[in-house]
Amino acid sequence: MFRVDCSRLRFLVIDDNGFMRRIIRSLLHGFGTREVTEAEDGAAGLEAFATYLPDIVITDWSMPVFDGIELTKMIRQPDTSPNPFVPIIMVTGYAERSRVFEARDAGVSEMLVKPISAKGLYLRIAKVVLNPRPFIRTDNYFGPDRRHLIKAEAYKGRGAAANLLKSPSA
Amino acid sequence: MPTSFEQDFGETRVIHVSGTLRAKAAVHNADPSGADDLSIAAAESAMKDLSGDFQNWMGDEINRLVAAFDDYRSKGPGERDITNLFSAAHDIRGQAAAFGYPLAAEIAGSLTKLLDKIEPDYLPTPLIAHHVDAVRAIYRSQVRDYANPVAVQIIHTLKRTIDRMVEARTNAIAEEQKMARGR
């Protein structure tokens, strides 16, 4: 079995509430992380994302300028983002089913509903590091596979077969 | 940026990202469950070190809520903006439990539901005031758990009132739409 050595990871924490940023930073330092960058709104977060190239983004949903959903959509732009594959963990007070679907459809990797706990945050980090989902590109979506139970192995061989069937010589 | 290879399924492409964080940060763990109890305990300890500040932080958040409500109430019906009020209530909803005030989090959650589901013109100011007063009272009286029957009853009553109001407004909107279609 594996665990995550957080000292090897760079985090970007985006939240307009300074108390919440401090809590998340303390938890990350407790996990052993040394590099944590903070931003207090979506615009500053996007700028910090391009500057610091974090390994994992932790963002709030509700923020001024533009919110966590808009931020996620900008990060998931495959043609313009410095790293559209970066794992995004959304920490939010919203627990409603419709909100979870909205976050998932924007390209959020994992959601963590407040109140935040050390175990809850660690498990989300472990999930995006140890069991990352493949990414999906369609005309109207770019982001992690929205089916959480699908593993990468499920796709093995299927792509080749699909391409073969589509080829003119087949 | 990590490298990747893609599989083509027609309108859908599946991208397998290599050079991932797993290669960078996964290390063998003696615990077969995969949990890292030491890291979690260290983080909990770090959060406990912050708990001395929680009392002041909670006070600051409540002052923000009260100021936002005073500002909201001071304006006329046509010029009221709920943005700051919602933001303050939303933050208390998310953080008060971590600060040791789970009941205040519940009441703030009820207030955010009201502000989120009811259009500004239909928002009942007295009901908002009840929520703000209840959060402030819980903080002032240091009610930190569900053993206080009065606080629990207040939460129950406020939540039930909000649920009924949201349901009534939803039904009214549906009725208005039905009538508009029938015209």
CATH class of chain A: Alpha Beta
What is the CATH architecture annotation of chain B? Up-down Bundle
Number of strands of chain A: 8
The low-confidence runs of chain B, each spanning 5 or more residues with pLDDT under 50, are none
Percent of residues in β-strands of chain A: 15-25%
* Fraction of helical residues of chain B: 55-70%
Mean pLDDT of chain A: 86
From the alpha carbons, calculate the radius of gyration of chain A and give it in angstroms. 17 Å
**Overall tally of domains of chain A:** 1
Fill in the CATH topology of chain A.
Rossmann fold
Using the 3D structure, state the CATH architecture of chain A. 3-Layer(aba) Sandwich
User: How many beta-strand runs of chain B?
Assistant: 3
Rg estimate of chain B, integer Å: 24 Å
The biggest beta sheet of chain A is recorded as: 5 strands, parallel
Instruction: Count interface residues per chain for the largest interface.
Output: A-B, 57 and 57 residues
CATH class of chain B: Mainly Alpha
Query: What percent of residues of chain A adopt helix (DSSP H or I)?
Result: 25-40%
The total domain count of chain B is 1
Could you write a compact summary of the structure shown?
Chain A is α/β, with parallel strands linked by helices. Chain A is built from six helices and eight strands. In chain A, helix 4 links the parallel strand 5 and strand 6.
Keywords for this entry:
heterodimer, A: 170 residues, alpha/beta, Rossmann fold, five-stranded parallel β-sheet, 6 helices, B: 183 residues, mainly alpha, Four Helix Bundle (Hemerythrin (Met), subunit A), two-stranded antiparallel sheet, 3 strands, flat
